[in-house]
Amino acid sequence: MAVIIGVARETAQGERRVALTPETAKKLVAAGATVRVQRGLGDLAHFPDQAYADAGVQLADGDVLADADVVLCVQPPPADAIARLKPGAVLVGALQPQADEARADAIRGNGIVAFPLERLPRTTRAQAMDILSSQAGIAGYKAVLIAAQLAPRYFPMLTTAAGTIRPSKVLIVGAGVAGLQAVATARRLGAQVECFDVRPETREQIESLGGKFLDLGVSAAGEGGYARQLTDEERALQQQRLADHLKGIDVIVCTAAVPGRPAPKIVSAAMVAGMKPGSVIVDLAAETGGNCELTQPGETVASGNDVVVAGPLNLASQGALHASEMYARNLYNFVSLLLRDGALAFDWDDELLAKTVWPERAAAA
């Protein structure tokens, strides 16, 4: 019997993305799966029901998850929804089970085989399944557009009849996927762009995009392409030098994150107090506490010296169409590892499955 893949409408507030597009649905049907989705699934991401129907998807008004062998999602389903899934069903998406005890208990209690793709190993083979990278890219792009909108100045240099307008000085904090996309976007808008990262190996990537690497003399190169946490002495030196530099910066876009931990505080309230009035900070790390001490998640506020600090949430959802296309391809590439002739087959010797599955299995050790 063919595996049944179910996808329901997202229920999280403000979520516009979908885990399945007509493109990936067609591929799953071709692989022998039966695909069922809730009507209106893709409305907010601009994928009409008819496009899904044309791809061979079964559309339903009610529950499409009760008898599904595989459930795809963007945001993790509520605990009660997980409890209603078929025992032993496969759940794939950005699940963060350890962030919610009720969700974790529902997964364990119902014997769900969960694949939180944020746990995916950072390997070359896994790149096509990497939801963190695909969604971070569009978030970095949107963050710069928000900064340009909030800034009371042009980004590019302009020569006008009224004189020359100097380009904005933009600093990107963090040279991960979001940060590098922010560098590229700010450069396209004509700004003078610098990027600060404690990993010296990012210099070449930053410079290849037209940015300047800001070297503060502090290195925190870590494992797996991520930064390690700084020592107290390193952090003090970094903050002293960064504070002096920020006095001449017009726009900061913060993107620094350490997986599984609160975002590192890099821009202090004292640094903000030293910036020019009218400067702008857009903090992509707001969802995990923010890189700026003054960030208020989901809010845009002004400091005492008229520096605007924005803490947008779920920026990838603002680019729902392209974000969904990339996310759905990530999920399709991962689910393809689970399918053999239209049926489920788990190869626990595959490190991508073994290291991603939650709860961890003895067979994955």
Automatic annotation (TrEMBL):
UniProtKB keywords: NAD, NADP, Nucleotide-binding, Translocase
State the Pfam families in the record. AlaDh_PNT_C, AlaDh_PNT_N
CDD domains from the entry? Rubrum_tdh
Protein's organism = Luteimonas marina
Record protein name field: proton-translocating NAD(P)(+) transhydrogenase
Q: Which GO terms describe its cellular component?
A: plasma membrane
Listed GO biological process terms:
NADPH regeneration
What reaction gets catalysed by this protein? NAD(+) + NADPH + H(+)(in) = NADH + NADP(+) + H(+)(out)
Q: Which InterPro entries match?
A: Ala_DH/PNT_CS2 (IPR008143), AlaDH/PNT_N (IPR007886), AlaDH/PNT_NAD(H)-bd (IPR007698), NAD(P)-bd_dom_sf (IPR036291)
Record-listed E.C. numbers:
7.1.1.1
Tell me the function of this protein. The transhydrogenation between NADH and NADP is coupled to respiration and ATP hydrolysis and functions as a proton pump across the membrane.
Q: Where is the Alanine dehydrogenase/pyridine nucleotide transhydrogenase NAD(H)-binding domain?
A: 148-311
Start and end residues of each Alanine dehydrogenase/pyridine nucleotide transhydrogenase N-terminal domain: 6-139
Q: Which family does it belong to?
A: Belongs to the AlaDH/PNT family.
Q: Name one GO molecular function term.
A: proton-translocating NAD(P)+ transhydrogenase activity
- Top-down, what is the taxonomic lineage of the species of origin? Bacteria, Pseudomonadati, Pseudomonadota, Gammaproteobacteria, Lysobacterales
Question: What PROSITE patterns does this protein map onto?
Answer: ALADH_PNT_2
